[in-house]
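Practice problem: predict the structure.
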Amino acid sequence: MSLIDCAAADVPEALARALRVLDGRTMTILTGAGVSTDSGIPDYRGKGAPARRPMTVEQFLGSDEARRRYWVGSHLGWRSFASAQPNAGHRAIAALEEHGIATGVITQNVDGLHVRAGSRRVVELHGTMRRVFCIRCGQVFDRRDLSSRVESDNPWLVTTHELPLGPDGDVTPETTEGFVVPDCSVCAGTLKPDVVFFGEYIPSEKFREAEQLVLGSDALVIAGSSLVVNSGIRLLERARRRRIPIVIINRGQTRADARATVKIDGGTSEALTALLEGLAASTGHRELASSLER
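Answer:
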């Protein structure tokens, strides 16, 4: 795809400006749910996204019924969530890292698609759905193994039709009656997915890791995030204090459009692919763009 192939009339000019400010610089890429929509995972706040009231950490920890509702919905959505494949945007980011242009990716997503696309330095700010841990003894479990146990304990738990998938791999279950909630096979303690729930703080060491990526780069690219979550704004402010370029790619407005050096109002897959091709052309590294064909 070339710069002129993008659909919106003003996108090519924004891409051209982004290429000018990014040329010759290393970048950190911060991604949100919009990066994964082309993989079939909906976002929280994009156009057409259904209104959602995600479970808070207080609800999850404070109520047996809330945990039962969470695990039913999460299990029903897990198969579709886990089978999602990286899209062109994920692959473009991995290619930029492979060739030393991107120093790494910071993601607010819990889908693991950056890792599966080949990115090596990935800071998962909000955790990952790939793991579950016991809040009593700390034992960690692979989500695939837990899913097998849930199916064994609840053989009746099947769906006859597709349920709408949420950004965190959750669906709204038709019923939770009779569901056996999984517990820790070591100490019988409460299991929690290794993700940051609403109302829960990002671990300080995880944020510092993300912060170091930003501080060690010459530019910050933010893709697919409306920047409503404060962690994204805090990282953007670290970049602003260093006076490095900030490029935002998102369909529709974000909380920080006025603070961006360049705002690209468009799809992340198209824009990231175009940036990859443009940087490949300017540096003479044609093999950058060919990375997407792998």
